[in-house]
Amino acid sequence: MDRVHVYTPGEEDGPLNAYEVPKPYPSPLYDNNERQQFLPPVKLDPGWEGTDRPPDELNFRTLERVEDLEKNKPRDRLNLVYIIMVIHGIGMLMPWNMFITAKSYFEDYKLNQGNETTEEVQEYRLNFMSYIGMAAQFPNAIMNLVNIFCQCGGKTGVRIITSIIIMVLIFIVTVILAMIDTSAWPVLFFWVTLGSSVILNSACGIYQNSMYGIAAILPMKYTNAIIFGNNVSGTFVACVNILSIALAPDIRTSAIYYFVTAIVVLLIAFDAYFILPITKFFRHFKLLTKLKHQQSRKLHEQTCCGPISSYWHVFKKIWVLALSVWFTFFVSLSLFPQIQSDIKRIDFPIADVYWTPIFCFLSFNLFAMLGNLLTEVMRFPGPRFVWIPVLLRGAFIPLYLMFNFRVEERVWPVLIPNDYAFIVMAALMAFTAGYFSSLCMMYAPKKVDVEDAGTAGMMMAFFLVIGILSGVNTSRFLCTLIYIEI
């Protein structure tokens, strides 16, 4: 017979003992059959998605028994936790997507005003995507790394909420910069923008890494929900950019609306986070992970910074997947946005002002999102062989340089002068990026023990960011190749 909590009359602080009837009441509850018939049933499930009890007192059947928790998994009602993860996926990439998609605002408006046309300003304009990429991803990578090895800065929730607040404040500064005239000081504007990006993406790094750690303790599809949200974010931002170009009277007004939208999205993510800890589904898996930590004596609370050996133990199990996700993002960010945004149309029937917003930013994020969605119905190849197609994606790099990229300055001939071929190639590159990045991120936490899933998730997030960082820096090198005579 299963043992249950027995609540006695007048008891206020929960069960006195999870397994035995308290001694002051030895017999009335069990010897008096007539009285026992009128006792109310013991409720083992909390109310709708929450309870006033702390997490370690949830009324799950046989709380301390891990096998029972694994057998009796609750349902994610209304897919609420999944939706919350998608919202955070949208929010965490909002800074990156906003800054790179506003290419015309920075390059053609803010850095192309007034009479100051020095070589310094022209350098900033020509390579703005590379500069903003480095300013964004260097601090992002550093904060991801710090968040893995040293989680001394308070609870995960505090880190996430603080990060979102910082991101909102920086976007407010960005909106103010869009409102004022900076034509007299374009160099100062450039460095203020880069400084804002550094702070913004430092906060984003902590936010991103913490959310992947949380998702790793949940079933596989919740990690994919974050990646899906990342690409929804890019698609959403690209659509907002196109609408702002079409509807706003000038580029300054469109930029203001554009950055205000980012603030609204981050505030929605801020509110969504407070719903997550009270859902029965999330509390179940959090408790399950905690109990497995106790079983293996690896409680995070026992030490501020975990021993290096434990991280090496996790890395040995996921290193192929970690390098695979790194290479996936390395190839993608070597080409997008720096090179892809500078591939110009030849004779495609669309206005130039819409070519880059649609066939660079919208195309990449839309098809990457579709690649994410495919993993919900098909997961091939498995974790053992996923590195093979990931490696083959490296062929996209030389192919991109054969298109109509910086045709005015290049020395290399344009070997593929066809807009339609570029559109298909760009869609294929983005689709495979979304598909294989999802597979790698989903497989990794399941390759380790449950108690190490959070660490594995954060490690994968770190390699993802390193892939972005190395890709962004490589893109500048690739741009110089077309100027070299063969």
From TrEMBL:
Keyword Transmembrane helix tagged: yes
Transmembrane segments: 80-100, 128-148, 160-180, 186-207, 228-249, 255-276, 318-339, 354-373, 385-403, 423-444, 456-484
Cellular component terms (Gene Ontology): plasma membrane
Keyword annotations from UniProtKB, A to Z: Membrane, Transmembrane, Transmembrane helix, Transport
Keyword check for Transmembrane: yes
Residues spanning the signal sequence: none
Subcellular location: Membrane
Topology class, membrane: Multi-pass membrane protein
Alphabetized GO MF terms: nucleoside transmembrane transporter activity
Superkingdom of source: Eukaryota
Pfam families: Nucleoside_tran
Family: Belongs to the SLC29A/ENT transporter (TC 2.A.57) family.
Protein name stated in the entry: Equilibrative nucleoside transporter 3
